[in-house]
Predict the structure of Phosphatidylinositol-specific phospholipase C X domain-containing protein.
Amino acid sequence: MPSIAGCHSLLHGLPRRIPVLISGAVIFIMVLSYLLLSMGPCMVWGVCYHGYQSAYSFDADLAHHPTWMGDIPDEVPITSLSIPGTHDTMTYTIGSEGLQCQNWNLSMQLDAGLRYFDIRARLRDDELQIYHGNGYTGYSFTNVLVGMFEFLDANPSETIIMRLKQEGNPIGSSNTISFEDSFNRYRQDDPVTTAGANDHLYIYNRTAPLPTLGELRSKIFILQQFPDNNGPYGLLWEGNQMVLEDLWIIPDIYHLADKWTAIRNALELAATSKHDNSVLYLAHVSASIGVLPIEAAAGPLNRTVSGMNDMTGQWVEDFELVEDATRTGIVILDFPGRRLIDAILRWNQPLQRKVRRSTWSRSAQLSKYW
Ligand SMILES: *[C@@H]1O[C@H](CO)[C@@H](O)[C@H](O)[C@H]1NC(C)=O
Ligand SMILES: *[C@@H]1O[C@H](CO)[C@@H](O)[C@H](O)[C@H]1NC(C)=O
Ligand SMILES: *[C@@H]1O[C@H](CO)[C@@H](O)[C@H](O)[C@H]1NC(C)=O
């Protein structure tokens, strides 16, 4: 409190008392504002995490949409939906700023309404363990499957889209089987996961049309990013049934401008392309390498540029009522917040039964969705 001490010592000159009091108050307010702005932008502007502040990040725990797919008719193809999801889903306790991409666990993410998950596994002692690069998340593929099965048992109207990626080479020296064989053990020969896998894994052979929501309810649809001899098990990652935006290497915060251009182009393409169920649209809002994932999402601590979650959230809100913008596709996020999740989900409203019956009544126009 140096300003108050200074003020007291000046008070000895009585005739100057009033101007001194005023300037003391001014100094006090200036110091207080400086402290608030430098130490706690969160107190002034809202949602904050580790000092990073962003209106569209971090508070996914305040979003609550455990059954949003229940309002959408069975015949809608999965490719016609607007789906929020997470990148490097399981990194919420990884303990390294460079590798952490999330701040809530899987069950919280599911409850918030997120339905796409990025699951990166490495083969370690014949088991699949969840990594981000060389960083171990502390979680196993069993943890992931059990969490997803529990959610789908409790909310059978819902669908989960799981990217399953082989994250680098096997680890350890006691591996005797392949990544694919290990994956199949969880499906066919594991006391903890096999029953749930029978109920909930949807095996897609890539020749049938991309599935509808009705076919996928209570199921996990796999986007397969690992080699197989006896598959396939799901849609091929980066195959011709997906349109993917994945500009993720951003050398510094000033190149986030290029990242935003890539995101906006991807969202515009998904929003305006025909609904012919030929491809799944996916856009990564996340980025890293020259920037921390949290800086890319929420903007840097010094707030010199906007974070990608804020840019994306504003775009999604600005275009949500535009007639010709019909879907966002899958939007893949680091550190998502309530406002961003809510905004993406609102794009599905024209597809929802109850909305269709009452306020919107544009069923004639709905044919453009499928
Ligand atoms: C996930 O996080 C929430 C909130 O912190 C907690 O209540 C819940 O028990 C966690 N779930 C699991 C499976 O750890
Ligand atoms: C793929 O699945 C579809 C529908 O389930 C089926 O009709 C088709 O015969 C399958 N194709 C192959 C090559 O297994
Ligand atoms: C703001 O922070 C970023 C990332 O921490 C840094 O690269 C940049 O130089 C900083 N800008 C200013 C003007 O301090």
